[in-house]
Amino acid sequence: MISLGVKRKEVVIASRKSRFGPFGEHAVNASWIAVQELEKLGLRDDVDLHVYEVPVEYQTVQRLIPALWKKHSPQLVVHVGVSGMATTVTLEKCGHNVGYKGLDNCRFCPGSQCCVEGGPECIDSIIDMDTVCKRVSALGLDVTVTISKDAGRYLCDFTYYTSLYQSRGRSAFVHVPPLGKPYTAEQLGRALQAIIEEMLDVLEHSEDKINCQHEH
């Protein structure tokens, strides 16, 4: 994170375990494999990358996400999850607060069926996902990137909203399809690398613009 003249930035990547553990409904957890590929590739030299695997448990998410923000004070947190319905790499624009009825891996569901009682119904990421999508698509990668406004009202959406609420919008969520449907781990890793670097660029330019306006 840029603060007090410190040039190094920190990015936290939190990958969701699949619904029934690392394997369960999919032969492998595509999101975790894709993040491991990203780790191999790395990001640009001025970025410190921290990777975590997040259990599919509401109560763990409520403890872990604030703890990660407190520990790292990162410039950005990017959450990655696998979607069995996805055929593209999908950038989620927002997280939702209510409608969580599915049981997690501990057979638990919040009694309120919401992330933050009294919180706004929806929180948008401060990152312009349309711009990120256009930029990544223009790079000519062999991966299709699309936009979504509904992360699914399960642990992906719950995690995203929790992180957006904690960070005042300085979070992102990327859904990837199962491996081989149609992309390889290497393709997904390269896509994540390009997406995150474009997110950082968009975030930095928007902050520079805000700072410039404040100076005037």
From TrEMBL:
Segments traversing the membrane: none
Gene Ontology cellular-component annotations: cytosol
Gene: PGPEP1
GO biological process: proteolysis
UniProt main location, coarse: cytoplasm
Record keywords, A-Z: Cytoplasm, Hydrolase, Protease, Thiol protease
Protein name: Pyroglutamyl-peptidase I
Subunit description: Monomer.
Catalytic activity: Release of an N-terminal pyroglutamyl group from a polypeptide, the second amino acid generally not being Pro
Alphabetical list of Pfam families matching this protein: Peptidase_C15
Residues at the active site: 92, 156
